[in-house]
Amino acid sequence: MDLSRDDLFSWPISHWMEGDGPESDVVISSRVRLARNVTGIPFPHLMDDGQAERIISMVSQALAGGPADEPGPTADLHLVRLSDLGSLQRAVLVEKHLISPLHAAGARGAAVIRGDQAVSIMINEEDHLRIQVLFPALQLLEALAVCTAVDDALERHIDYAWDQRLGYLTSCPTNTGTGMRASVMLHLPGLVITNQARRLAGLINKLSCVVRGMYGEGTEAAGNVFQVSNQITMGQTEEEILSGLQSLTARLIVEERSARRSLLEEMKPQLEDRVWRAWGIMTTARVLSSREAMQLISDLKLGVALGLIDRVGASLVNSIMFMIRPAYLQILAGQELSPDERDIRRAELVRQHLSAGTA
Amino acid sequence: MLCQECRLRPASVKVTAIIGGQKREVHLCDACAQSRGEVEFGGEAKISIGEMLAALLHQHGMLHPAATGAPDIKCDNCGLSFDGFTKTGKLGCSECFTKFDEQLKHVLRHIHGSARHVGRMPRRAGGTLRLKRQMQALRDELAACVQAEQFERAAELRDRIKDLEAAEGGRGNGPKS
């Protein structure tokens, strides 16, 4: 695989993620994931090594079957076996949202990753295939279009498990039907500071959506970053599900912006103080825990979005949010680090990038 | 009632979520509700899917096969038993959906508020499906023509149905429908 040239492990965030996009003051990224399985072959938790291998070669052949070197949904896709990667490399792929923690832990998985890292396919995770597309800012429909194009290309060669009444058959019944999970990653400091989170949680649940932390199920919502995704996958078309999530997101954006505005109107000095303190600590600290760093980044990101600070751009702040993750820090250091060592490296890295960004 | 999370302390907080048009309630004690701090913002019921399934099947009068003493059902293709499914909440293969169809209907309706897929279909399945729908329409028309003694039109329709049947046979085994 010649993905290394594209900074798969040497840069914490895909370069295209640094780009701007609609509503990027609140929406960090949009993701669409399709779960697909092969008819007749046991799902990953029950299959043997030979069957796992069969799925990998099926995908690899399906990708090779596409028109080579032509721009198309399967162009520039590269297959990598997780067994060929070290544990830190796998962890970096998790931090970049290219694979899931569950996938990284399994020994029989493989991942297909597009050169620009916008598209990835997890092979033998909870389902045989999980095709996912990750775009910056609010671009759910665009992500679905790319995802279905890859899905169609694979389907020409792979006999998907599908039923007329139940739709796409998946390992967990919570995904059966469309097999689609769409999510947006949102930065909602205004709603958290103004204590409106609880009220909105009710709204989110009412609209058949779920909120989680930055890295999905069971992860904490550090740095006021939340992931909102659809809960149901059956009884609605893909487009209906997306439009539900889209209008919920639109509502959250409006609420977040209005919270930011009222903060700015009612307590500008305190808000400025908070942003500049974050800047002060980040540019001088010698030890930074992951939690503290996420909170500071959140304050700084808010300050940039509100124009309270102009020493740093939004895209650098976004990158820093990903580069402070443990696996990336260790890959960068070229060795495993203890939590204490990581906190020192983290502070160093943040200082470096912020001073370089202002030079 | 005991807290559904720690199952040690009495539950004092009821968290209600409406998912797919259906209400789901979780009962928690103060400590667990607080330790889930993020409950504030969403927070999912952390009951395992197995527990949810068990409660659900009980509610629908379909007790766990093991509990009723009835023999457990098993998928012929992957060997997963229904008992195994309720423990992990995961199906074993595409054939499990046929084997556990009756029970799954309730599960899917509970999770999604519906047990019918209306979204995308694989192109190949879509092709077969369209063909089947087309043939059914022709057969209906044929029956009507015979009834009305329009034999010339009926012969025409019969030939077209034959052509479509031949085309369908030539498609081989697509995904089951």
Strand order, biggest sheet of chain A?
A: 2-3-4-5-1-8-10-9
What does the oligomeric state look like here? heterodimer
Which percent range describes the beta-strand content of chain A?
15-25%
Tell me about the biggest sheet of chain A?
8 strands, antiparallel
Overall pLDDT level of chain A = 89
- Average pLDDT level of chain B: 73
How helix-rich are the residues of chain B, as a percent range? 40-55%
User: Which stretches of chain B are poorly predicted, pLDDT < 50 over at least 5 residues?
Assistant: 37-46, 171-177
Radius of gyration of chain B: 25 Å
Distance between the termini of chain A: 36 Å
- By secondary-structure content and strand pairing, the structural class of chain B works out as mainly alpha
How does the helix and strand content of chain A classify structurally? alpha+beta
- Overall outline of chain B: elongated
CATH fold label of the largest domain in chain A: Creatine Kinase, Chain A, domain 2
> How many E-type strands of chain B?
2
Write structural notes for this entry.
- Chain A is α+β, with helices and mostly antiparallel strands and 359 residues long.
- Chain A has 2 domains: 5-260, Creatine Kinase, Chain A, domain 2, CATH 3.30.590.10; 267-357, no CATH class.
- Chain A has helices at 49-64, 87-95, 101-105, 140-155, 189-193, 197-206, 238-284, 290-305, 314-323, 326-333, 339-358, and strands at residues 27-36, 77-81, 110-114, 119-123, 129-136, 162-163, 167-168, 180-187, 209-212, 225-230.
- In chain A, strands 2-3-4-5-1-8-10-9 form an 8-stranded antiparallel sheet, covered by helices on one side. A two-stranded antiparallel ribbon of chain A has the order 6-7.
- Chain A starts with 26 loop residues before the first strand and ends with a helix.
- The mean pLDDT of chain A is 89.
- Chain B has 177 residues and is mostly helical.
- Chain B has 3 domains: 1-46, 2-Layer Sandwich (Wheat Germ Agglutinin (Isolectin 2), domain 1), CATH 3.30.60; 49-112, no CATH class; 127-169.
- Chain B has helices spanning 30-35, 49-59, 65-68, 82-88, 96-99, 101-112, 123-147, 151-170, and strands at 13-19, 22-28.
- Chain B starts with 12 loop residues before the first strand and ends in a 7-residue tail after the last helix.
